[in-house]
Amino acid sequence: MGPYAAIQIGIVLTAFLLTRGTRICAILVVLLVVSTVLTIVQILTGSNALALLLPWRPFVFLVPVSTALIVGRGISFLVGRLERHRTSRHAIFVVIVTALLAAPVMAGVAHMQRQFREARRNPLNGVMDFVAAATKRDQLYLIPIGMETFRLRTGAPVFVDKKSHPYKDTEVMEWYGRIQSTNAFYRARGDTACRLLGELSARYSVTHVVLGRDRSKMTCDLLHELYRDPWFGVYELVPSRKS
């Protein structure tokens, strides 16, 4: 579980504590329990069918509603405290509105700064810049399935990634098969890796492959190096060298 997931769970639990005993709390509890139970079942069973139902999706509803409840309780608390100090209602609302406008702006700026810093340090920058400049029509890139920003950043078609998945039954099976084939290639070594790469090229017309530095010394006849940096390399699958 990442830090963002922990924050989201914390927001939902805080809303439960603030609204306990109310009807809205009962609704939130039902959604949370159903989502949590189904998610745990999916993790324990590894059920792909259940995973495609996205049992954790109620958090898309739970988090904003919980945030609104927390903000509402906070506003009520501030209004009560300020009124006890005989502060005018006009001043109260000015303070509240200013705080509500300033808080998300500051949080957004901080988040964007963090994203920009992470983007500048991304070891994929070099290879993605190269592919974005060099990609042409009819090229198809084989990449590790975890490179979820590659397709959007470069505009290059990819064999498969985990950024999103289809929902139609036959398309899900095709997507899953491609995931398995990609993982098998990146786990393989030596002649086995070369054979799997050749099969992907022949069956799916894969034209290029991205390899990490641990695989940069692959000696497949069909590989022609186009780009290499300290982290990744881009290789073209040369038809004339296929066995």
Polypeptide structure, described:
This protein has helices spanning 3-19, 23-45, 48-52, 59-84, 89-121, 125-134, 150-154, 169-187, 190-204, and strands spanning 141-142, 208-212, 223-228, 232-237. Strand 3 (223-228) and strand 4 (232-237) form a beta hairpin. It is of the alpha+beta class and 243 residues long. A 4-stranded mixed beta sheet has the order 1-2-4-3. It is 63% helix and 8% strand. The protein is elongated and about 80 Å long. It contains 9 helices and 4 strands. Helix 1 packs antiparallel against helix 2, helix 1 (3-19) packs across helix 4 and helix 8 (169-187) packs antiparallel against helix 9. The longest helix is centred in the middle third of the chain and has 33 residues, at 89-121. The mean pLDDT is 83. The protein has 2 domains: 3-87, no CATH class; 125-241, no CATH class.
